[in-house]
Each structure stands twice: as C-alpha cells, then as structure tokens.
Design brief:
By secondary structure, the protein is an all-alpha fold. Helix content is 82%, strand content 0%. Helix 10 runs antiparallel to helix 15.
C-alpha cells in the first residue's frame, strides 16, 4: 500500500472516529434508558426519549458556534474545545439526581460532540468535492456505522457489570483516546489564506448566502425530514423492542442487525456513487424509503403489531434505503458552499437537526403500544422529501431550458 493510500485510509478512520464518539454517547445509553429514568425520578417512560432527542438538539445547535470559529482559527483547536466540554458534560450526567440535571448534561454532551462531528465534515470538504466527497463520506460512514452495531451490546455489558454511570466513564475513555490520535496524526486542513475573521454577524451573513443556494436549502430540508423520521426509531427503539415485543435481552443484537443494513448500503454507496452519481441514488432511495413505509401502513393500518420477523424485515428494508440517503444528502447540500464549509456545515446541520427534533418529538409520543405511528412518520417524511426532489428537478430542468434557449 502506498504512503498516500495509507494516509487516506487513516484519514477516513480518524474522521469516522471523530463522528463515532457522538454515536457512542447516543447508542450505548439505549439499553439503560429505563434504569436511568428510574434513577432520576422519571414517572412517564415516554420522558426517557428526551435523553435521546435533546442530545440531538445539542448536536444540531453546537455547530452554529463551532463552525464559524473553525473557519476563523482552523479546524483542530475547535475539536479540542469540543472534547473539553464533553468531559464536563459527562460528569454532570454522572452526578445528576434529577431529570432536569440529566437533560442539561445530555444537551451539553450533544453541543460538545457537535464540534468533532461538524469539523470532520468540514475537513472532508476542505480536501474533497463532488462525487469524491460523497465517496469519502460513504467510507467514513461505514466505519462510523460499526459503533451503532456494537455500542448497545457494549452498553448492556457495562450496565450489567458496573451500572449505568460506568457507561459515561467508558465514553470519556474513548473520547480521550480519539483526541490524542487526532492531535498526533491529523494535520490542519484549513490553510491560513482561506480563513475568515470571526464576527458577530457571521451567522446572518452566512445564512443570507446559504439561502441563495437552492440546492443547499432543498437538500437540507430533505435531510431534516429523513433525520426526523429516523430519530423516531432511535428514541423509541428501546421502548418498542423491550416493552412492546418483550425482547429486553435481545435488544442490543436487534439494534446491531438493523445497523448492519445501514452499513451495508453505505458501503455499496461508496462504489455506486461514482457510477450513478449522488442525485440519482438519493432519488431512488427516497422512493424506496417512502414505498416501504407506505406498504407497512396499508398492511397494518389496524395498529396491531405484526410478528417480530415481519417488523424486522420492514425495518431492514427501510434502513437499507437510509444507507444510500444520508451521506449523499449531506454531500449534495454542502457541494455549492465549499468556500464557507464551516459555517455551511453548521447552519445546514442546525436546520436539519431542528426539524428532526421537532418531528421526532411530535411522532414519538404516539409510539406507545403500536409501531404504526413510526411507519406513518416514515411515510409522510418520505413523501414530503419526494415532493422537494420533484421541485428540485423541475427547477433544474427549467434552468437548463432557459440556458439553451439563450
């Protein structure tokens, strides 16, 4: 293997590691949600979802600060800021004795981990563009997907061995390891001549510039709809499999199996995107996303849960489509704004996450005794995404006809 190829392999692994701490902080906690809820005085099990959805709120809010700062002082210092805040936030979670304290710690954890997550995307955009950016994003996501595969099982093992607080200690240990690796091995990707001064009006100016890029805004909206519906699954999966299907011991392995379907599709995407392009793959996958959900809603409209293997089949098909959507959507949204990659990643991530949290919070409260509301959410969000895609194609074709007529 050449030095350049080795360097690129390590870059992909390191970017995936930066993203994966957020996945670890999210997924390792899933088997312990009910126990944590009892420890901090939760009386309504649906409130446990807040420990997932509000973590995402922090994950989407943090980039508004970290993105512009990274455009000003460089990418690496911002990653260090994020890991420092994560240590503080994790300690707040460990010592919390109320739901409010735990929520505060989880929001701060999300804000903190938005730094390495956002900066990893900005660093990829610093070095790559177009379909090659989507290819790198796909390979990064494949490595990243390994964490959701193993994290719930690891969380369950740590929970049984040492209690729920030890899960936060394990997260801290891995975050420190990744931070040291990043410090030792990753060079700064934002050259000094490309940096911009950090000003208070950078958000307003950045947003004004972004809304002029129709492609960026449309694909950010789609990203928000898909994220929102998928977040319903993340926040209710423990309730669905442990409570509705009474599969408490099997939950980590079910979660891992479904994560593998996303990882498989994402791995295939890394190869197929160079042949078919991002837009075509997003279009086909979004059609499949809406079609699978619509089929479930028609077949099980009574609200009665199907046998477990049928639910697993539908979820597997649903998430296989997701594997082709997420990386390509983000690359399509970021493609026109490479010159402001930091603030671009921040604002688009914030908008998509804000949409996702609102959608998930609304739908999640209906997932009490039936899986049907989750699939209705998949269906509606998929159809809305297809409407936006149709509008994008219409506008693009009209622009092409206007250009040719002139």
């Amino acid at each position: 293997m050449s030095v350049e190829k080795k360097s690129q392999v390590e870059f992909v692994a390191l970017m995936a590691a930066l993203m994966s701490i957020a996945a670890l902080a999210l997924d390792a906690l899933l088997p312990a949600l009910d126990i944590i809820g009892l420890s901090v005085g939760v009386t309504n099990p649906a409130q446990n979802q807040l420990l997932i959805t509000l973590f995402f709120l922090g994950l989407g809010t943090g980039p508004l600060v970290f993105g512009p700062i990274s455009d000003s002082i460089g990418r690496k210092p911002v990653v260090y800021m994020g890991f420092g805040l994560f240590i503080i936030a994790s300690l707040i979670c460990v010592y919390s004795q109320s739901l409010e304290g735990m929520i505060t710690g989880r929001i701060l954890q999300g804000i903190a981990l938005s730094a390495p997550r956002t900066i990893s995307i900005a660093m990829i955009r610093d070095l790559f563009n177009g379909n090659y950016m989507a290819r790198i994003m796909s390979f990064v996501t494949v490595v990243f997907i390994l964490v959701p595969i193993v994290a719930p099982a690891m969380g369950k093992w740590v929970l049984d061995l040492s209690g729920w607080k030890a899960i936060f200690h394990v997260q801290l240990f891995f975050s420190i390891l990744v931070c040291i690796w990043f410090w030792k091995r990753q060079a700064e990707t934002l050259e000094v001549r490309n940096r911009v001064s950090f000003k208070g009006r950078v958000f307003v100016e950045g947003f004004k510039e972004l809304i002029n890029y129709r492609q960026t805004m449309l694909f950010t909206l789609i990203w928000g709809f898909i994220t929102g519906s998928f977040l319903v699954y993340l926040s209710t999966s423990q309730q669905i499999f442990q409570e509705q299907y009474a599969l408490k011991e099997s939950f980590p392995y079910i979660f891992a199996a479904l994560a593998i379907t996303i990882g498989t599709a994402t791995l295939l995407n890394g190869t197929l995107v160079l042949k078919f392009g991002m837009l075509r793959l997003v279009t086909i996958s979004t059609i499949a996303y809406a079609a699978v959900a619509s089929t479930y809603v028609v077949l099980f409209s009574s609200g009665e849960n199907p046998p477990f293997w049928i639910l697993l089949l539908f979820c597997g098909l649903q998430f296989f489509a997701v594997g082709f959507i997420f990386g390509n959507l983000r690359a399509l949204a970021m493609e026109p704004v490479g010159h402001i990659a930091g603030i671009g990643a921040a604002i688009t991530g914030f908008l998509a996450t804000l949409m996702g949290v609102a959608i998930s919070t609304f739908i999640g409260r209906y997932v009490e005794n039936s899986v049907l509301p989750m699939f209705i959410g998949f269906m509606v969000c998929g159809l809305m995404s297809l409407l936006i895609l149709s509008y994008f194609y219409f506008q693009r074709n009209r622009a092409q006809r206007t250009f040719l007529s002139n």
